Predict the structure.
Amino acid sequence: MAEIWKKVYKKMTDTTRKTGRFLSSALPHSEKVDADAVTLAVVAIIKNEAAYIEEWVKYHILVGVERFYLYDNGSTDETRTLLAPYIQKGLIVLKEFPGQKRQLPAYNDAIKNYKHQTRYMAFIDADEFLFSCEPDKSVRQEVEEMFSEYPNAGGFAINWRMFGSSGHVKKPEGGVLENFLYRAKEDKRGNRCIKTIADPRRIYQYAHSHYPTYYRGYYSLDERGNRVDDWGNTAEVIKRIRINHYYTKSEEEWVARRKLGRVDGKGDANRSIEDFHAYDYSDIYDDGMLPFVEKIKKM
């Protein structure tokens, strides 16, 4: 029965995306940007992220994110308290967003309400960190340059690089960036997945958590200018921007996280302990984030 419903859900989702592509080709849209719009914002739905949310926010401020549109899917920990100072400064807009299967509605709400207030939006999760592969450039600089080089792009498909537990069974002291330093080789499972940084005024809707449906004439590109129309893109060499995806963290955290369920409505079927071991990559030592650790602690 579960397999039958999975097929039904996939069929409904595919139909929604195809319908969206058809409708988007006929609907008008405005590309107006407010005079005081920020350049780069992050959109994310969050739930009980107190352990690392402040590190995630501070890091993204350091790499050029100017605003966060965050949707709280029923947190019961200290997440709101930790975010309060950033809300007061106008860096974070936080909305209460309870319920099941709320990721896509959150993304679409951000597009509807804030698309004229920011030039570009990155749609990511709280375990995903945007990373510039060029040390002398921020993520925001990379994004601006990519849209300048490809002015007709709807957005850019940004590949994951999957990080494992780095041998941590228990939750370690300190943050993500100083503790989880081993990742998968480029050809390993998960690294083909992408998330999207887009011009929100060119998006018709989000019907898949990894990529949007655009208005007619727009689509996602990778950093080499190749068109990407799906959730996956083969990119064994990344020279500009990637997403460091700290998917497993420690085994203890994996087990605890599994109990929360998922905001994309897919349940916890892929959070078994077998999957933890399948994704617990330690192929490559990657210390690219270490220069940010002390900077974050001083903020």
In short: Residues 1-9 have pLDDT under 50 and may be disordered. The chain has one domain: 18-28+35-298.
